[in-house]
Design goal:
Elements: H1 8-26, H2 31-34, H3 45-58, H4 60-69, H5 82-86, H6 92-112, E1 123-126, E2 130-133, H7 134-161, H8 172-175
Antiparallel strand pairs: 1-2
Helix pairs in contact: 1-6, 1-7, 3-6, 4-7
């Protein structure tokens, strides 16, 4: 089924819902699950959360601002792991609250731009990909949220998957090799 037309209201709805989805998924977990990974070079749920919080600080809205300013300056490269050091030692509850608050602030700022369909065609310069549109940036933000929710769920699935025995055959998530 082909995708429907890009919808700014859907984008906003998903972005607004991600903090609650993460909260429900990981707040009640014990530390052993929060620090579980899929192997060397992969991230734990705690690290994914620190990455998401840092993205609210240093990635998404700074890039939206750059596109909207139309200065032509390229985006500042994003350090995907900088949140690990910045939020080292933070308990998951505090990180979840920080993510919720920062995402709400990001959405208030995004709303203040009063984006129109023509705004979505504005371009910015990615340091690796070159010219990108605001629509692509916003779609990437949503995709990024979903990808990390999937990543966390996959880590948790594989953790318990160690004990499923013959049912392993029914779980595709247990057959797919881990990705960094």
């Amino acid at each position: 089924m082909p995708p429907t037309a890009f919808s700014l209201s859907e984008v906003r709805q998903v972005l607004a819902h991600t903090p609650a989805s993460l909260d429900a998924l990981i707040r009640p977990l014990p530390e052993a699950l929060l620090s579980a990974t899929e192997g060397p070079g992969t991230w734990s749920p705690h690290q994914v959360l620190a990455h998401l919080v840092w993205g609210e600080v240093d990635d998404w809205m700074p890039r939206v601002r750059r596109v909207m300013s139309q200065t032509g300056e390229p985006f500042t490269p994003f350090d995907r792991e900088a949140g690990f050091a910045r939020y080292a030692g933070w308990p998951v509850g505090r990180l979840l609250d920080e993510f919720r608050d920062r995402r709400a602030a990001s959405l208030r700022e995004l709303d203040a731009f009063a984006l129109q369909p023509a705004s979505l065609r504005l371009t910015g310069r990615h340091p690796e990909f070159g010219s990108i549109t605001l629509e692509q940036l916003l779609a990437t933000w949503v995709t990024h949220d979903y990808a990390h929710l999937t990543q966390i769920a996959r880590v948790l699935t594989r953790h318990y998957g160690e004990w499923v025995g013959p049912w392993r055959a029914y779980f595709s998530a247990l057959r797919v090799p881990a990705q960094p």
